[in-house]
């Protein structure tokens, strides 16, 4: 069977940013919840993979934001897998108001890793055999490598990964990374502009008690480059580009 997940979420006060709009980390948590529910329907959820000593890892996410909902409004998130190959499964998201106004959309690429070796492995056969929806209009697959480089310079901030930053796969949750990197954008951008696109490329894991170094610098008047690096190993944990528009 094929499964398309659709969930309705009413915006709560704790999910608002300082400008009274739904925050990007809160939206990503909702998207993650809907993706988890869809994976459960396909019997490829976290617990299903754990039975085979595998785990999920998000490799790339690009989200475009058009409008931001306010407190008390309801949004509808629809998500589904769009393609499967040897190493990756691709998933799209569509975020709308109840009356059908487009708020955001996103595409993502996921991989599986060995819980024992903590290394990437080919997708297990039971994932590759799922039946994909056919009545969809999938977004273009994201390229396996980003078209931007990590920013140089001194770290803007150092972070120690906390207990509440890790998830069931025993590594740092992707939403925690996004919140950390967005908070290194300068005050004027955060206060006066809206995030219009975020493209994140995840390269390796981090874990509880790891120290991470976050770098951000303007790429142009409308975009920033971000990087998070492991302080001990020097490995890049992720690279990202954020784009910003207009004023509130």
Automatic annotation (TrEMBL):
Q: Which InterPro entries match?
A: Acyl-ACP_TE_C (IPR049427), Acyl-ACP_thioesterase_NHD (IPR002864), FATA/B (IPR045023), HotDog_dom_sf (IPR029069)
Q: Which Pfam families match?
A: Acyl-ACP_TE, Acyl-ACP_TE_C
Q: Where is the Acyl-ACP thioesterase N-terminal hotdog domain?
A: 6-128
GO MF, one annotated term: fatty acyl-[ACP] hydrolase activity
The Acyl-ACP thioesterase-like C-terminal domain is annotated at 157-245
Q: Which UniProt keywords apply?
A: Fatty acid biosynthesis, Fatty acid metabolism, Hydrolase, Lipid biosynthesis, Lipid metabolism, Transit peptide
What is the superkingdom listed in this entry's lineage?
Answer: Bacteria
Q: Report the family membership.
A: Belongs to the acyl-ACP thioesterase family.
- Protein name (record): Acyl-ACP thioesterase
């Amino acid at each position: 069977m094929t499964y398309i997940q659709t969930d309705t979420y009413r915006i709560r006060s704790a999910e608002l940013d300082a400008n009274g709009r739904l925050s990007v980390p809160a939206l990503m948590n909702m998207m993650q919840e809907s993706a988890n529910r869809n994976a459960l329907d396909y019997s490829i959820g976290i617990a299903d993979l754990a039975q085979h000593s595998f785990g999920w890892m998000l490799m790339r996410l690009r989200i475009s934001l058009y409008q931001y909902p306010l407190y008390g409004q309801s949004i509808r998130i629809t998500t589904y897998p769009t393609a499967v190959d040897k190493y990756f499964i691709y998933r799209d998201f569509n975020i709308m108001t109840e009356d059908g106004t487009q708020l955001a959309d996103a595409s993502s690429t996921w991989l599986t890793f060995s819980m024992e070796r903590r290394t990437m492995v080919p997708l297990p056969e039971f994932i590759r055999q799922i039946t994909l929806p056919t009545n969809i209009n999938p977004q273009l697959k994201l390229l396996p490598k980003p078209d931007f480089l990590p920013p140089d310079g001194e770290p803007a901030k150092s972070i120690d990964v906390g207990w509440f930053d890790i998830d069931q796969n025993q590594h740092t949750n992707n939403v925690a990374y996004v919140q950390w990197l967005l908070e290194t954008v300068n005050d004027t951008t955060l206060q006066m502009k809206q995030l219009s696109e975020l493209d994140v490329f995840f390269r390796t894991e981090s874990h509880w008690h790891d120290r991470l170094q976050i770098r951000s610098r303007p790429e142009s008047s409308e975009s920033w480059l971000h990087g998070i690096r492991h302080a001990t190993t020097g490995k890049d944990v992720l690279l990202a580009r954020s784009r910003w528009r207009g004023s509130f």
